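for the writeup, i need someone to sanity check this before i put it in the appendix. the sequnce is what the collaborator sent (i think, or maybe the updated version? ugh). structure was predicted straight from it, no edits. if anything looks off just tell me and ill rerun, i have time this weekend
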Amino acid sequence: MHSSAFVRAGNSDENISEIHTFGAGKPQKSSKSQVLADITNFASHAQYTFVGASMYQEKIYRYPAPTGNSQHMMQIPIVLPIDDHLQKDLPESVLDIDASDAGKHLTECRLARQIHHNLFHRECMLMAEPGYMQHQPEITGNMRAILIDWLVDVHLKFELREDTLFLAVNLLDRFLEDTPVPRSKLQLVGMVAMFIASKYEEIYFPSVADFVHIADKTYTRENILVMEATMLNALKFNITTPYSWTFLRRNLKALRACYAKDEKDVGHLASFCLDLALQDYAMLGFCPSEIAAAACLLAGRIVWEEVAWNETMRYYSGDWDVESLRECEEHLVRLLENEQGDGGKLTAIKRKFASEKYGKVSTIAASVDLSLPYDDKEDIDME
């Protein structure tokens, strides 16, 4: 197993004095979360009610009551406000990327625009302020990067969902923003952020014993549980938040609708850019939807040589146009250029995206032309 380094002592950011490696053998069996209800068993036909002057949707879901008798049914009304302007027809120049999902009850395509409108509204509410590290007396941006490099390895070891990694880093940054953390506890904070994120996002999440094992028993079960309570209280249990990976999925769906071809390679490269941005402290200055849109645009330029960022892409990305994405895109190019070199000591993301699962995109990106065509006025103004 590849060794992962983490700073725990020393007077310099580059002084890595202790190395914690993954312990030998396999982690213990993951804990299983209890399934509260099978949401796919809801009745396929919903009842709709309009209340007063405002439009609402009331869904009556039916499923067996706790008695176990299938003849007894419970009715759970769920009232969802519907924004009038989101129910109107799309602009003529914008494709309806959700039309193909009509009739698929799990996609909720009728509410997709409202859901993503809400995500755009909330994306900056629960994210750390750029520059928060200046209030940390013992840790730096470089230490944060080393920690995230280790977390990527942990994430791969446990085979967790992409959402889990992005949520873990969000929790980490928000906790560090308000809570001074000594250098000796930084790895513990990162590990607990991943623990909380995995319990939130995963069906089968790693147990406390798994995390004790993965850190080579540097911290005890009690250390992890105490830090979990401390972190959740510091964050006031505000966990739900969108991140760049959330928006990238929507952007790729719009890209597929615009080009009518497989966007898998574009998605792999854009995901590579998002992971690199996750590790770079300076990228906290950009909104998650902005990073996702810039990554999608840059990946399209590289893989397809050009990409028309038309009105459809602008609409579904959160109203980001090519010119407004320029600064963020240039930051992503610099991150890719760094990976084209030796990449320094942080190699977890490069190794992750060198696998077949991600189309070996980090290997391909090492030899591509990363020049941006901003000197071409037509590219900036294209409709």
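The radius of gyration is 23 Å. Residues 39-82 form one domain.
thx in advance!!
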